[in-house]
């Protein structure tokens, strides 16, 4: 069924190759690749800044991410690869070095060694080599022989090999930090695929001014190649005729305009894509799939100011023995410029016991207890709250739980989804969103030539 | 005129807090945005930042 065009005879009209709705990292990666390949690309962003949940801003003198903190896969990261492919200048980034992480297990702190890290951590958690061998063998087989089903959660899969809660807590801490989920919510197969995509590639990097440096670079590539990135521009409708997307209707500076486009890429999540294109243009089965699968992952995110760094290394401390399994870092150990002189940041992130049903106030109280437990000198070190946030709903950790993403193609021809509701299997958070943008850019280049060529 | 927060819709994601040019917003322990009316200039930037349609103007 075709959606009716809006009845505006005096509406401004434009024509372009590509319209991208939303300037998150998936949209901007797709946009930069397409613009660099000669496609006239217009990116429309509702907010005053580009980047969505993958950028950073200055807030009270501190560099604060809008949600995502870092590149996860170093030079193998889809974001880094995109920057290279579009000829963006090298961005200054720093990593944690060694140790990349520490784990607090049953009150003791252990460094993540460069080799044999998981076996080492399981050993100190278990003190039972038979149990460690059982888990490591099962993981090895799952990674090299038969990937577990997505019908079973990772926690249930692991229960087949161990009931040791200290071991379960190590995995729970990783899953909470990197997926915004719990081990009993994450499909086992998807956890294994994520481990495989990380193998030999985990190299966390933060740019000098936070992820804004990356967003600025991608935006510059789009503009230098004849494209546009318009902020404060809200898309009201994706116009669909005969099963094909034809144009979008947007509002900018109080004026409505219609932009005809060969392809529309939506970076605003599969549910909003349906809303803009009109429910009637989608099959019952697709609507059911999106409704059942796409639910946001969540997290309680905290930034504190301190007079001294509360960790003595720039990596991540995972506390597996706290009420919630929390990840902590001091970004100012990596980049002192992220705080005013003499001040430091402490970042903490935790996931509620259930991402579907939780009381944010109760989670806040639990988080503050964990904070005081891990950092008893917090107040003596001048500790104070800079910002607390609840990533959920329309501003989530990811729009779809890991393993529950929809495909980038939609039932409407020339309408694609990118972003963290359409991540490819095994790719997590912002890096997964970026990879979805790269996949869509490749598909478009294979199918459609730039307008006028 | 003043900025009003619909507590039932606000999730406390903090995006309006970060982008408020006057730093006049904060997130409460219940994860609902609070407006400091002393510093708010009613520039409406926060309305453009909200993904949940939780902010509005009172007349």
Describe the protein's architecture and organization.
The complex is a heterodimer of chains A (453) and B (59). With 453 residues, chain A is α/β, with parallel strands linked by helices. Chain A is 32% helix and 23% strand. Chain A has 13 helices and 18 strands. In chain A, strands 1, 2, 9, 10, 11, 12 and 18 form a seven-stranded mixed β-sheet that branches. With 59 residues, chain B is an alpha+beta fold. Chain B has one domain (2-58): Alpha-Beta Plaits, CATH 3.30.70. In chain B, the strands form two sheets. Chain B has a two-stranded antiparallel sheet with strand order 1-4. Chain B has a two-stranded antiparallel ribbon with strand order 2-3. The radius of gyration of chain B is 10 Å and the shape is globular. The termini of chain B are close together. At the A-B interface, helix 12 and strand 17 of A face helix 1 and helix 2 of B.
Keywords:
heterodimer, A: 453 residues, alpha/beta, FAD/NAD(P)-binding domain, Guanine Nucleotide Dissociation Inhibitor, domain 1, 3 domains, 7-stranded mixed beta sheet, 13 helices, 23% strand, globular, disordered N terminus, B: 59 residues, alpha+beta, two-stranded antiparallel sheet, 2 helices, 17% helix, 24% strand
């Amino acid at each position: 069924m075709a959606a009716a065009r809006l009845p505006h005879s005096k509406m401004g009209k434009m024509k372009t190759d590509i319209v991208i709705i939303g300037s998150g990292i998936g949209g901007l990666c797709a946009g930069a690749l397409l613009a660099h390949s000669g496609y006239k690309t217009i990116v429309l962003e509702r907010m005053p800044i580009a980047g969505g949940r993958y950028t950073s801003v200055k807030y009270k003198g501190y560099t604060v991410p809008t949600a995502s903190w870092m590149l996860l896969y170093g030079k193998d990261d889809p974001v880094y690869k995109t920057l290279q492919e579009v000829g963006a200048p090298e961005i200054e980034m720093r990593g944690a070095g060694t140790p990349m992480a520490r784990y607090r297990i049953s009150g003791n702190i252990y460094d993540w060694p460069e080799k044999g890290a998981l076996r080492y951590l399981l050993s100190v958690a278990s003190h039972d080599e038979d149990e460690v061998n059982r888990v490591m063998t099962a993981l090895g087989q799952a990674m090299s022989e038969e990937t577990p089903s997505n019908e079973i959660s990772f926690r249930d899969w692991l229960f087949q090999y161990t009931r040791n809660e200290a071991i379960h807590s190590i995995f729970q801490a990783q899953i909470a930090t990197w997926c915004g989920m719990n081990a009993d919510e994450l499909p086992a197969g998807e956890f294994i695929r994520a481990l495989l995509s990380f193998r030999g590639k985990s190299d966390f990097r933060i740019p000098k001014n936070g992820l804004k440096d990356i967003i600025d670079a991608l935006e510059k590539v789009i503009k230098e190649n004849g494209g546009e990135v318009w902020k404060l521009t809200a898309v009201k409708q994706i116009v669909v005729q005969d099963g094909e997307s034809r144009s979008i209707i947007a509002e900018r500076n109080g004026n409505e305009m219609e932009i005809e486009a060969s392809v529309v890429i939506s970076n605003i999540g599969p549910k909003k894509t349906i809303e803009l294109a009109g429910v009637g243009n989608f099959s019952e089965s697709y609507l059911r799939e999106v409704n059942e699968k796409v639910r946001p992952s969540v997290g309680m995110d905290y930034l504190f100011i301190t007079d001294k760094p509360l960790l003595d290394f720039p990596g991540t401390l995972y506390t597996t023995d706290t009420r919630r399994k929390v990840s902590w870092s001091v970004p100012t150990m990596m980049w002192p410029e992220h705080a005013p002189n003499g001040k430091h940041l402490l970042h903490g992130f935790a996931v509620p016991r259930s991402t579907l049903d939780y009381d944010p106030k109760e989670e806040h109280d639990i988080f503050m207890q964990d904070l005081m437990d891990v950092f008893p000198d917090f107040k003596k070190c001048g500790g104070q709250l800079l910002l607390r946030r609840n990533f959920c709903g329309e501003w989530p950790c990811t729009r779809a739980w890991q393993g529950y993403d929809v495909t980038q193609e939609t039932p409407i021809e020339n309408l694609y989804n990118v972003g963290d509701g359409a991540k490819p299997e095994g790719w997590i958070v912002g890096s997964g969103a970026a990879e979805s943008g790269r996949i869509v850019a490749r598909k478009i280049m294979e199918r459609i030539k730039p307008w006028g060529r | 005129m003043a900025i009003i927060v619909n507590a039932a819709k606000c999730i406390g994601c903090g995006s309006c807090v970060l982008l408020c040019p006057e730093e006049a917003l904060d997130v409460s322990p219940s994860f609902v945005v609070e407006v400091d009316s002393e510093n708010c200039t009613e520039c409406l930037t926060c309305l453009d930042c909200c993904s949940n349609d939780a902010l509005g103007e009172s007349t």
